[in-house]
Amino acid sequence: MRAGGADGEAPLGSGFVLLWVRELATRMRDQRDYLTQLDAAIGDADHGINMDRGLAAAMEKVGGMEAESPGAILEAVGTALIFSVGGAAGPLYGTGFRGLGKALGERRRFDPEDLLMALRAGLEAIQNLGAASQGDKTIVDAFAPAIAAFERGLRAGEDLATSTARAREAAEDGMRATVPMQARKGRASYLGPRSVGHQDPGATSTALLFSALERAAGRGATERP
């Protein structure tokens, strides 16, 4: 474990991960109708419903896992999403969470640099499965800039809360940047030029993921050995 972010920050553990997932589940529930509305314009009109159901299933699956490693919890979240979310979102988000978990491995504590490494692994897993790059109007358009912003914060010596705030802002900027794009991947790509002018629902739910991460960091959900 390396020193990342501000000096003296306590290491992160299972409590932090569980809070992150709980915050994400709450956001998906609250934004379910909005996400579905976005998806109605360029998809199957079920993204919000599916993500809400998937995160609810994930919360059930991780109930009682407080003693498990952070990586095991994240992998369990991924498995729940794969098996409970329809369409492309389940495999993509599920594979991403499983990538996060595998990157953390069996360690009981991790630091912001480890989190950066895990986020990179999660994005890589998503891209390996979906073959999407920035500019394709997908999850990647919010996820990639969020990671870059998070890293900039750490390199500047900022603490976890400030760095995750940077990541959330970048994810939201990336989300908004999908509006003028023409989709080149996923269901929206079938619409061709008609996909222009609509915000991508996957990028929007990714912005919620980083908003939940910021919230978890801001609440100081850290565990000391």
Structure description:
With 225 residues, the protein is mainly alpha-helical. It has one domain (14-218): Serine Threonine Protein Phosphatase 5, Tetratricopeptide repeat (Alpha Horseshoe), CATH 1.25.40. The protein has helices at 14-30, 32-42, 47-62, 70-84, 89-104, 112-130, 140-155, 160-177, 201-218. Helix 1 (14-30) crosses helix 9 and helix 2 (32-42) packs antiparallel against helix 9 (201-218). The protein is globular.
> Counting H and I runs of at least 4 residues, what is the number of helices?
9
- The CATH class, by name, is Mainly Alpha
Biggest beta sheet attributes:
none
- Gyration radius from CA atoms, angstroms: 16 Å
Query: What proportion strand?
Result: under 5%
CATH fold field value: Serine Threonine Protein Phosphatase 5, Tetratricopeptide repeat
Q: H/E order of the elements?
A: HHHHHHHHH
How many strand elements?
0
Distance between the amino and carboxyl termini: 13 Å
Q: What is the count of structural domains? A: 1
User: Regions with pLDDT < 50 over 5+ consecutive residues?
Assistant: 1-6, 221-225
Amount of helix: 55-70%
Report the principal-axis shape. globular
CATH superfamily: DhaL domain
Q: Can you tell me the CATH architecture?
A: Alpha Horseshoe
Structural classification: mainly alpha
Average pLDDT metric: 92
Task: Give the tags.
65% helix; Serine Threonine Protein Phosphatase 5, Tetratricopeptide repeat; 225 residues; 9 helices; disordered C terminus; mainly alpha; disordered N terminus
